[in-house]
Structure to design on (276 residues):
């Protein structure tokens, strides 16, 4: 008899650093139940169809496919978001970008822009915390824009919108008090691109030239045309890129430039204010 506990005990995910969590998430999804159900009813025996679904999900995970793509969802901030293989999976470290924006900018009405929005995670987190803000998220990929819009509608956030634009290309003449972005920042020859979950994520959302800074340079160079005086630009970047991003912001004329550390203690985001 294959009980819930037996299925969990026999789940074999040798290459996953979070094997136990992965198995629990996949089994709960197969059962259509929350993870707490597994601990409450470990002696229950799932149906043959549920066991088959769990086995199929385990095999996909053994091949390296991220759990978020298998389940089609991922938590970010206080939100549950739909995800898909044409967008980056939202990560906990990116919540620092949201936290910093909420700290630096007032709760009074303003216009905010999220560049390369993907699932809409950053834009929707900001919109959920600041009802008075008008948040626009843009992405160059039509499927990403549609996905972000589905997330917006499901969450019922009327103060956010999503549009197609390659960075600032479709935003001529528009200005904001806040611009945030988690752009591609991995160097083209970085060995991490061949490891773990990243192998399944779109390269266009990860890679930015020889040193990983091509998109960040573009954003910093063009942001002043779209920032109000006194507005802020906040950028996520690689764990070892803070010094370079700091220098790029300062050279472009931004003031009050500083970096903030992520959950692992790395300088993960750098921000600067456009002079008033």
């Amino acid at each position: 008899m294959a009980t819930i506990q037996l299925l969990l005990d026999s789940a074999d995910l040798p290459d996953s650093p979070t094997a136990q969590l992965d198995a629990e998430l996949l089994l709960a999804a197969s059962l259509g139940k929350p993870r707490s159900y597994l601990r409450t009813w470990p002696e229950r025996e799932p149906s043959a169809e549920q066991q088959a679904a769990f086995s199929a999900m385990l095999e996909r995970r053994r091949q390296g496919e991220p759990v978020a793509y298998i389940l089609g969802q991922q938590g970010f901030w206080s939100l549950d978001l739909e995800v898909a293989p044409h967008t980056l999976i939202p990560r906990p470290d990116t919540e620092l970008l949201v936290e910093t924006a909420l700290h630096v900018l007032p709760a009074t009405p303003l216009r905010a822009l999220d560049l390369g929005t993907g699932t809409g995670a950053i834009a929707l987190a900001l919109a959920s915390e600041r009802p008075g803000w008008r948040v626009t998220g843009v992405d160059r990929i039509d499927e990403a824009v549609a996905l972000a819009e589905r997330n917006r509608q499901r969450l019922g956030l009327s103060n956010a919108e999503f549009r197609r634009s390659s960075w600032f290309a479709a935003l001529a003449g528009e200005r904001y008090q806040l611009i945030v972005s988690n752009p591609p920042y991995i160097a083209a020859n970085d060995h991490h691109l061949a490891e773990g979950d990243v192998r399944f994520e779109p390269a266009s959302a990860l890679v930015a030239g020889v040193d990983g800074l091509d998109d960040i340079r573009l954003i910093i160079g063009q942001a002043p045309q779209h920032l109000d005086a006194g507005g802020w630009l906040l950028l996520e970047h690689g764990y070892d890129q803070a010094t370079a991003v700091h220098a790029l912001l300062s050279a472009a004329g931004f003031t009050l430039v500083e970096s903030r550390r992520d959950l692992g203690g790395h300088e993960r985001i750098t921000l600067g204010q456009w002079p008033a």
